[in-house]
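Translate structure to sequence.
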């Protein structure tokens, strides 16, 4: 579906929100006996990828993952819920926010947040070239706040990349061969 300007029509946040749940096993542990951070990162990438595919209506690839934070250890037997939603959309990219919660197998406490991350996915066509994505339509105050915060992160990502490019060009002009 497209609007009169030929742009894809907007999609509400709830249309692509996704939760993946997974029980942690002994195969997922590090040398300390708790769950390996890389196992959680894979689940985060999977959940965010599902959201990006749903929102964009086709294939999407991970362009970046940042601010991956681990707040508390995850243990064998925990039921881990990975909740992801599209926070922001650009022309061909989407920021997906992810929260990781753990239900402790041996405690009757509510699920505790154990991590979070922000990922940028680019929607791609059959040749792997970026393609347009529908604008995300925030539905709640929380969605709106996340959308505004995502725009701040986007501005910072671009500024950081630009500053590093300028520095590298300056060093190359000074004759540093790296
Ligand atoms: C991501 C990828 C498609 C971008 O392609 P590109 O030719 O650089 O295209 P563009 O520069 O037009 O970038 C496309 C969009 O992605 C965004 N993007 C690209 N690199 C990014 C990065 N490192 N961080 C955040 N956003 C990024 C751009 O800002 C742009 O967004 P917009 O259209 O909403 O403004 C390309 O780099 C790629 O295929 N990377 C490999 C992805 C992959 O295989 N992931 C799995 C890892 S195993």
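Result:
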């Amino acid at each position: 579906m497209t609007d009169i300007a030929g742009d894809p029509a907007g999609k509400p946040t709830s249309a692509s929100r996704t939760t993946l749940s997974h029980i942690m096993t002994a195969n997922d542990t590090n040398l300390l006996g708790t769950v390996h951070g890389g196992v959680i990162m894979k689940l985060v990438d999977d959940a965010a990828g599902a959201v990006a595919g749903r929102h964009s209506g086709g294939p999407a690839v991970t362009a970046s993952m940042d601010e991956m934070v681990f707040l508390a250890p995850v243990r064998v037997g925990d039921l881990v819920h990975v909740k992801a939603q599209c926070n922001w959309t650009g022309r061909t990219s989407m920021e997906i926010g992810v929260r990781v919660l753990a239900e402790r197998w041996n405690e009757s406490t509510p699920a505790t947040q154990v991590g979070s991350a922000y990922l940028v996915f680019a929607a791609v066509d059959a040749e792997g070239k970026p393609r347009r994505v529908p604008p995300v339509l925030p539905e709640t105050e929380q969605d709106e706040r996340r959308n505004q915060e995502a725009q701040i992160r986007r501005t910072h990502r671009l500024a950081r990349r630009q500053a590093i490019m300028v520095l590298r060009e300056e060093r190359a002009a000074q004759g540093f061969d790296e």
